[in-house]
Design goal:
The chain has 376 residues and is of the alpha/beta class. Helices cover 26% and strands 24% of the residues. The chain folds into two domains: 270 residues, TIM Barrel (Alpha-Beta Barrel); 90 residues, Immunoglobulin-like, CATH 2.60.40.1180.
Amino acid sequence: MLSRTPPMGFNTWNTFGENINDEMIRQTADKMVELGLRDAGYEYLVIDDCWSEKERDEATGKIIPDHVKFPNGMKAVSDYVHSKGLKFGMYSCAGVRTCADYPGSFDHEFLDARTFAEYGADFLKYDFCNKPEYADGPLLYKRMSMALKSCGREILFSACNWGCDEVNTWIRSVGAHMYRSTGDINDSFRSVRDLFISQLDHYAYSAPGCFNDIDMLIAGMYAEGNVGAGGCTDTEYKTHFALWCIASSPLMIGCDIRKINDTTLNLLKNKNLIRINQDEEGRPPMIVFNHDEGRRLGLVKVLSDNEFAVMLANLSDSPCGMHMWLEDIGLPAAAGKGLRLKDAFTDEDRGVIKEKLCQEVAPHDCALYLAKLADV
């Protein structure tokens, strides 16, 4: 089963945009292995928009790689990625043209799916720009889903329609494995906060086989690259990654892995956070409390093996004393049970709490624990 847990990998768009080429992809693949990201679960290396020639091949009608960026063709790139034990991802669009004005797949879905299979693709990100007015999301994503199922290769289908057409209500039935439910992220904490809050009413639609994608990660970008904006602090990147993990969002790295620093690398490889994201049950977080229009949140995610992820997230601009009553997660004081907490970031044992969790949380920061039931 594809997408039994949220897909993990790297995508070129956030940092590189149109500035992609064969050498950069190979270098990134090398670093994903060298730095242990592949072994941590980041298995897909995805080339986003701007990889092709500006027009289809006249003789075959196929979308073909840019001969300057990829002089050896796309199959050679795919073969190299596969040789590193990684999976290879490509991009297309449901419209006539892609978002960056390259050939889209509208009316060419079956030809393009076969072409991606020939190139060795294992993943297809499928965008939503420049489509005819009469063609709605359900129809267009049904067409590409059917084309992928007939192409002779198993390809994960990443539907990227930005939350249009109430996508969460139908995309699973179409056959997609993950779906973009938001507009594009940029490298700012405001973007992180707004995207996460926008899906508070929709995370329950996410489950094994089809996950709500709140867009790619910006951790470690530091205002550089294609979606640079103002950048974030390490604390803000920590909160960003923790929110994506507890929401079971796919984890697609967006920074330049070739230049990644130790702080970002350790965050992205944190075994506790990845465990929360990749839990086999794939349950959405319960919203224990929501104050100040989503800027102060208490979240609990039920995990397998009688474990829980417990999060206090202060997305506001001011420090806040936060508390979560255990009664509100189904654990009354009379039960004789509390929660033993382990700090997900540091592995520190925080002991057993009963009745409520109380903590001062700095602005744009969070507390995240792995918890188990304990006698009190």
